[in-house]
What we know:
With 65 residues, the protein is mostly beta strands. It has no helices and 5 strands. The chain has strands at 29-33, 40-41, 47-48, 53-57, 63-64. The strands form 2 sheets. The protein has a 3-stranded antiparallel beta sheet, with no helix packed on it. Strands 2-3 form a two-stranded antiparallel ribbon. Strand 2 and strand 3 form a beta hairpin.
Amino acid sequence: MRRLRRLRPTSEISTSWWSDTAERPHAVWQADRTQLDLWVIASSGRPVRPWPTVVADDHSRAVAA
């Protein structure tokens, strides 16, 4: 299992960080989270709406699990 590198402070990030695509793997990671428009039954038996979170490498488009 690979370990993720710690993020650098904003002051150390080059202007390439703001480009459309990262220049190398693991340089930029993007995350998104949203509540789904569906209901599932939780282990407690109550209906809930899930909140999936996706983290992806900007260079390779690989999704981290």
